[in-house]
Amino acid sequence: MFPTVSHFISYLFGIEVPLPFNTFGVFVALAFLAAYWAFSKELQRKEALGLIKPTKRVTVVGEPASTWELVSNGVFGFLIGYKLIYALVNYKLFVADSQSVLLSTKGNLLGGLGLAALFVYWSYKEKEKVKLPTPKKVEVTVRPHELMSHMIVWAAIWGFLGAKIFDNLEHWDTFINDPIGGLLSFSGLTFYGGLICGGAAVLYIARKNGVKPLHMLDVGAPGMMLAYGVGRIGCHLSGDGDWGIVNLNPKPFSWLPDWLWAYTYPNNVAGEGNPIPGCVGKFCNELPQPVYPTPIYEVIAALLIFWFLWKIRTKVKVPGVMFGIYMMFAGVERFLVELIRVNSKYNVAGIPFTQAELISLILFIGGILLVAYSSKNKDKLANY
């Protein structure tokens, strides 16, 4: 396993490069980049077809930097400098436990003040370059794909919050014992929580800018599946605990690699299992028995579904159908994986189920209903 990027570099090249980046976090960032690419391509395609249109916005140019701009840039610069300089001065500690460094109140005051002053000066000078004797109002055209930077930031913020909330609900007993740790920890993220909250943020921004919900949902279908597949690579490589149940069954095919059938996740970032003899460092545990490597199965399934959705996207003409298909595929994929995945179970009326199984079922049924509704109302939605 590669809990950090440094472990991965050491494995590939045999050299030790101390870097404060965990593998899971890097792949989450790559997942957002993948979503950004797919979303942008689809927004551009739909705009070219006239299905979504640019919007006009009136803005004022030539104004000097406002007090709010100077203050907000100063605060932002202070936070970055406060943590960044402290992290650089205490680099070994930062590499060993970046989460504790980032989430603690410790920092470098001089570094914070210095970067705050730099950010304020930069904001002031940039505004001075375009300052006019008399500021004027101008109308600008905003194309849908130009909103992606704004959307991706809010999707990340609300997606993270949603993922944490759903994870803590799923592991309520652990959360009650340590609520602060549960909220602030970078580990423990539930995909469906991120999907629901992050998706709601994107729909809100799109709606404010004239992109109708069904079209925005269709735009997001392939990109969300691609991002999910990329993110799951990080889950597997880091060993974040999203693995399956114990698998002691013999391989069905002799050519199948052991790690693709049953794996013990050595050096997993979750710290689960028994200590590895002779291992030194923070990530020195290995599962006592091999388990199904379910993240890899989800990577394969998600990328295949993305390929299919990407192929059919130009053929689906009715708004809402594309997202309905995505919902059905996403629901089935996750429901099947849950059958061999370790997870907390609820029990209602004697029926055991996981949070993901329940949401998967809702997704699948919702997908059927959305496709049926869109197909039934295709004439009305043709000009939607």
TrEMBL record:
One GO cellular component term: plasma membrane
Claim: Cell membrane is one of the keywords in the record: yes
Source superkingdom: Bacteria
Residue intervals passing through the bilayer: 20-39, 101-124, 186-206, 291-310, 316-337, 358-375
InterPro entries: Lgt
Cited PANTHER family: PHOSPHATIDYLGLYCEROL--PROLIPOPROTEIN DIACYLGLYCERYL TRANSFERASE, PROLIPOPROTEIN DIACYLGLYCERYL TRANSFERASE
Similarity-based family: Belongs to the Lgt family.
UniProt name for this protein: Diacylglyceryl transferase
GO biological process, one term: lipoprotein biosynthetic process
Gene Ontology molecular functions: phosphatidylglycerol-prolipoprotein diacylglyceryl transferase activity
Species this protein is from: Pedobacter chitinilyticus
Keywords for the protein's UniProt record, in alphabetical order: Cell membrane, Membrane, Transferase, Transmembrane, Transmembrane helix
Record's keyword annotation contains Transmembrane: yes
